[in-house]
Amino acid sequence: MHTDLVAALDIGGTKIAGALVDGHGRIQARTQRPTPARQDGETVMQAVEQVLGDLAASPLWGRASVIGIGSAGPVDASAGTVSPVNVPGWRGFPLVERVRAATGGLPVELIGDGVAITAAEHWQGAARGHDNALCMVVSTGVCGGLVLGGRLHPGPTGNAGHIGHISVDLDGEPCPCGARGCVEGLASGPNIARRALADG
After folding, report:
1. Which residue of 32, 68, 187, 196 lies most exposed, with the fewest beta carbons within 10 A?
2. pLDDT of residue 1
3. Which residues, other chains included, contact 65 with Cβ-Cβ below 8 Å and sequence gap of 6+?
């Protein structure tokens, strides 16, 4: 049996997406579920397991050799844990261990979602062929990743480029991360919409 596919998980504050992807970056199967972000950690994990179950139901699942996870952050790639600001039920949540257990022991790699999109853009997208790049995600949160000297730089925990929780207004609104005036509080998709509605 060929083991030429990667099972990919994209975990964010709005949705949990999964795909089986080949070595050329082509999606062979995909699925997604809403993230129950305001629920407890086990309920969020159940949604992850449902996405994994959808992928495992594909006839291609047996070709998956590894699972790659890009998660909203912060993450601790070395510990295999996640603490997404937009998912309060996950603080130091052992995501790598839980996904490995749910998939029968497949190897699992974890990185912040901004770093994951940066790797993809450098491989197949807008940053392809560039030695230096900063790639940004503006969605439920705000994050990014860095390519320096032609190499991805995730940092020691997988969060390099995660700028969403840099404070840009020390007297600004409180952020769920505990700081004030964070970039994410001003520039994430939901916060842009909220501020536009408030300003009429």
Report:
1. 196
2. 52
3. 3, 4, 5, 6, 106, 107
